[in-house]
Design goal:
Calcium-transporting ATPase, cytoplasmic transduction domain A, seven-stranded mixed β-sheet, elongated
């Protein structure tokens, strides 16, 4: 007798049949306040101590200094036919180029600073109710809400280990662990989610509380876990400010490559002077600087930092806190992903999917009895049995309010009721119910019970037995229900070469059934922390990057070992401190989105690098003929754009070089669209789009600018 799920809602991030980056709701990316702040920051970045950090743009900055000197004295480096106005125009264009590069970085940083400012608004001058033992003794973790005295102090005076009481409608003054009490906490100031979270002591996941959140029911006794300045909120504010972001290995490698290219072109430009003298050609130092600036990869050099900072910003907009850019970008190179079964692959709580009556027992009798046995079972399993039974026609009895209730307990492993008419109903683990009917009623085991139990277990489900007055009526099958679309997303991970491993504490039979249904490449049953560490180290020893999700203290070693460790905000402090990424929504499936985001960062950087290098071809055709056409008339054949004069050719190339930077800022911040394609397909797609585009666009742009300059004369 099959039972529908009925309780789960489709997961927003799992409705796609393709692995792609799910964009958050649109924001006002270029607000007036952000732009004004970015403009001010872009001017401050002209400081040479800042410019020297970017070798490519530092060369442009030095070039502007030299052309500015030539504007004052054109013959500073020898005879020249360049006028002061021409040199001044070149200086202005070079300064604008540097400014546009500064602006792209400032806008990216501004997004992070805006996030930090929003977080700072959650910090107010709070007063904490610190608790003392009766008689003014030392603080003790044994203190409860019903004992001790209250001492009101500023929240900043709290120290690690202090105990504070937080009442209804009060803000939690410090990070900590719940020691006593149960209450709902509004964490929207941190996570952005409106739904309150139930906090209670001695739970692996839901005992951690965060400074700045608000208690909206009852009371909590909290043990402070961080000193002032060390709270989770303080770390968030520090980390989302992109100005102090660490560079990733790929970004460092690209910076080195751009530096080498820049050095090569510096040598090439310097060699032009003796070549010009040999050809008896008049060449201006200003034109050599223009050639150098046009040929070095200024576009990607100007946008490189913005791409990295924007990646951190995009994780923040997904409510993911990245400890460094390295963690986000590493997600793009992940080879293996470890996924917890519960909450990641499955919905979380097991669902009642089948009621299996034993021989000669009417199905409705089993359903009704299981319903009554579960009415007072407060566990998720009890609630799903009640919900499923109601859909199949089960109804409460008139005398149920006077029944003797038995809630589920880990000791009895059963729940049930003793009805006023004398009927005794129990539901629970098969061996526990069997022991009950033998002890209370001296009843024999039904002949077909073992076969029914084995059948349910073979499907990866958990059987619960239901008994009425010593007779076992049948079994309820509790099954792990896959999240919508998870099978397709795992298939897409495999398509792009990422191996998926499911980690669960379930027995091998159940784990195998869920793993086969989800389509993961491998699984670890009855997983212990040591086993998780083993598989991560094994993968890493072969040069592969590994990602993992976790929320418990026992996950901390593996999260610390993994290249990409995503901890849940609802998890323990140990897990959050070990991870390099924290999901403020506590949605483990975001690890899959992080992989897409990491790959998007890599693809964006590669695409803009391709575009920048391809641009150089058009600039060769613009500047070189203009510089040597008088000495070598044959070079006129290279003037394929038919630019008006050598001067307009140089100016057109430089102006285009400057304007292309702000034109690409939105793409650098937004990122190139990621599709689940293998590396070879992605390479050729970007080569066609950005390589060919990088060839065509500058030819058109330089020609248009040259026409405008010619008309203006």
């Amino acid at each position: 007798m099959a039972v529908g799920n009925g309780e789960s809602q489709p997961e927003r991030r799992l409705t796609s049949t393709h692995l792609r980056l799910q964009r958050p709701p649109a924001e006002n990316v270029y607000s007036t306040e952000l732009l004004l702040s970015a403009l001010a920051d872009s001017l401050r970045k002209f400081d040479p101590r800042i410019q020297v950090r970017n070798p490519v743009m530092f060369v442009v900055w030095l070039g502007a200094i030299v052309t500015a000197a030539l504007t004052i004295e054109p013959s500073l480096f020898g005879p020249t036919d360049a006028s002061k106005s021409y040199n001044a125009l070149l200086t202005a264009i070079l300064l604008v180029t540097v400014w546009f590069a500064n602006l792209s970085e400032a806008i990216a940083e501004g997004r992070g600073k805006a996030k930090a400012a929003a977080l700072r608004q959650t910090r107010t001058e709070l007063t904490a109710k610190r608790m003392r033992m009766p008689g003014g003794g030392m603080f003790s973790s044994a203190l409860t809400l019903r004992g001790g005295t209250v001492e009101k102090i500023p929240a900043m005076d709290l120290r690690k280990g202090d105990l504070v009481r937080v009442d209804r409608d009060e803000v939690i003054p410090a990070d900590g662990e719940v020691m006593d009490g149960t209450a709902y906490v509004d964490e929207s100031s941190i996570t952005g989610e409106a739904a309150p979270v139930l906090k209670e002591p001695h739970t692996d996941i839901f005992s951690s509380v965060t400074a700045g959140t608000r208690v909206i029911s009852d009371q909590l006794l909290v043990s402070v876990s961080a000193n002032p300045g060390e709270s989770f909120l303080d770390r968030m504010i520090h980390l989302v400010e992109g100005a102090k972001r660490q560079k990733t290995p790929n970004e460092i490698a690209l910076t080195v490559l751009l530096s080498i290219l820049t050095l090569i072109f510096v040598i090439v430009a310097a060699a032009m002077a003796p070549v010009a003298r040999y050809l008896h050609a008049q060449i201006n130092v200003a034109d050599l600087i223009a050639l150098l600036v046009a040929l070095i990869p200024t576009t990607i050099g100007a946008l490189l930092s913005a791409i990295g900072i924007a990646g951190i910003d995009r994780t923040a907009r997904f409510n993911i806190l990245a400890m460094s850019g390295k963690a986000v970008e590493a997600a793009g190179d992940v080879h293996c992903i470890l996924l917890d079964k519960t909450g990641t692959i499955t919905i979380g709580n097991r669902q009642a999917t089948d009621f299996v009556p034993l021989r000669e027992v009417p199905a409705i009798s089993l359903v009704q009895t299981a319903y009554l046995a579960s009415l007072f079972d407060s566990t998720p399993e009890g609630r799903t049995i009640v919900s499923s039974a109601e859909r199949l026609g089960a109804r409460p009895q008139a005398d149920i309010d006077h029944a003797h209730r038995f809630d589920f307990s880990s000791h009895t492993r059963m729940s049930g009721v003793d009805l006023p008419d004398g009927r005794m109903i129990r539901k629970g683990a098969v061996d526990a119910v069997l022991a009950h009917v033998r002890e209370k009623f001296n009843a024999a085991e039904p002949a077909d019970l073992n076969a029914a139990t084995a059948l349910i277990a073979s499907r990866g489900a958990t059987p619960l037995a239901v008994a009425l007055d010593g007779q076992i009526l049948g079994l309820v099958a509790l099954s792990d229900v896959l999240k919508p679309g998870i099978h397709e997303r795992i298939a897409q991970l495999r398509k792009i070469g990422i191996r998926s491993v499911m980690v669960t504490g379930d027995n091998p039979l159940t784990a195998r059934a869920v793993a086969q249904e989800a389509g993961v490449d491998d699984f670890i049953a009855e997983a212990k922390p040591e086993e998780k560490l083993r598989i991560i180290r094994e993968e890493q020893s072969q040069g592969r990057l590994v990602a993992m999700t976790g929320d418990g203290t026992n996950d901390a070693p593996a999260l610390a070992q993994a290249d990409v460790g995503l901890a849940m905000h609802s998890g323990t402090m140990a897990a959050k401190e070990a991870a390099n990424l924290i999901d403020l929504d506590s949605d483990p499936t975001k690890l899959i989105d992080l992989i897409a985001l990491g790959k998007q960062m890599l693809i964006t950087r590669g695409a803009l690098t391709t575009f920048s290098i391809a641009n150089d071809v058009a600039k060769y055709f613009a500047i070189l003929p203009g510089m040597f056409i008088l000495a070598l008339p044959g070079l006129s054949a290279l003037n394929v754009m038919h630019l008006a004069t050598p001067q307009t050719a140089v100016l057109s190339a430089l102006i285009f070089n400057a304007l292309i930077i702000p034109s690409l800022i939105p793409l650098a911040l937004r990122g190139v669209r990621f599709r689940a394609l293998n590396a070879e397909v992605t390479f050729y797609r970007n080569l066609i789009v950005y390589g060919l585009g990088g060839l065509i666009v500058p030819f058109v742009g330089i020609k248009v600018i040259d026409l405008l300059l010619s008309v203006s004369k």
